[in-house]
Amino acid sequence: MKVNNISNLYRASNIALKCYYYLMESRENHFEAPANEPLTTREEIDFLRDYAENFGAIKAHAAANFVNFPNLNIRTDEEFESPAKKHRRERTVDERKELESNAELGTFEYKTAKFLAHQYKKSLDRALAEEVIQEADVQINVIDGDERKLLSYEEYVARLEEDTAGLQIVGLFANIVGDEAEGANILLRNDIDALQMHGTGEVKHQCGHNVHSGWALSNLDGIIEYKKKFGNLPFKQIVFVGESNEEGNTAAAYRDAPVEMIKSGFLEKYGAMDYVI
Questions:
Q1: Phi, psi (rounded to 5 degrees) for 168
Q2: Which residues contact 228 (CB under 8 A, 6 or more apart)?
Q3: What is the per-residue pLDDT for 249?
Q4: Looking at the whole model, is its pTM more than 0.90?
Q5: Residue 96: what pLDDT?
Q6: Which residues of the chain have pLDDT under 50?
Q7: d(Cα 197, Cα 206) in Å, to the nearest integer?
Q8: Please, which residues have CB within 8 angstroms of residue 216's CB and are 6 or more apart in sequence?
């Protein structure tokens, strides 16, 4: 079975699976699964299934059939969960609820950016300390008055402690450098802003951006666990991008967050992307 464009596979799956299929077949922009030869090892499939179950990934059935894995049976029953998997699931739910309780309009996601950056940094710092990965960082992209800035987590927290006058969020970035210098550069994006409800004026995550962000955090942890288990991250780099103002808040100082990211030096820092997910 031949897949001419790997994005077709992404569309057949959900975000919980995207990175892991890519990790297994990162060197090709198309791949083929011969009838008598598995696309990946059984161990890798089990790893993938474990993470798919963690998010209740019913759509994984479609992905499994799409790449000719008829035996990739996805269970979502909590009774099958290991303690580690249960912990991951509960943490993902807690993160989603935390984001939901602090919903903020585009460019003013001060608490959201702080929470996400802290969670990214916590996972990356642990992986760096354990020497699972060798290079990673977290940056918050802001417009501060008339200046575009890339701030470290510590710089961002210090800026919030002053006040938020003139400060608008563009996005936040967390990257993991992989083990293949000639491999692909991957961008995995999620939105972080919420919506203002007509009539009540209440700000809520009615578009599910809190879920986007929870998936992104869990994918980061999954990639770190993949490295622990298989010893190699077959890509050059993955950059997680939390994009502000996807909903188009009219009070924003800018109209297009990706353009602002580029103006702020994203390409100079991380390079051009081969895949955007």
A1: -135, 140
A2: 132
A3: 86
A4: no
A5: 80
A6: 1-40, 54-77, 79-80
A7: 9
A8: 15, 116, 188, 190, 240, 242
Q: What is the pLDDT of residue 213?
A: 86
Contacts of 147 by beta carbon, 8 Å cutoff, 6+ apart: none
The pLDDT, as a whole number, for residue 238 is: 92
Q: 133 with 127: CB under 8 angstroms?
A: yes
Residue of 109, 213, 116, 249 whose CA lies nearest to 168? 109
Q: Of 242, 243, 237, which Cα lies nearest the Cα of 275?
A: 237
Coil vs helix vs strand at 200? coil
Beta strand residue intervals within 217-259, DSSP E? 237-243
Structure tokens at 161: 């402690």
Token pair in block for residue 137: 């960082």
**Residue 137: predicted pLDDT:** 95
Alpha-carbon separation of residue 250 from 5, 155, 193 (angstroms): 37, 27, 13
Going by DSSP bridges, is the β-strand pair 2-3/31-32 parallel, antiparallel, or unpaired?
antiparallel
- 140: helix, strand or coil: strand
What span, in angstroms and rounded, lies between the C-alpha atoms of 277 and 261?
Answer: 17
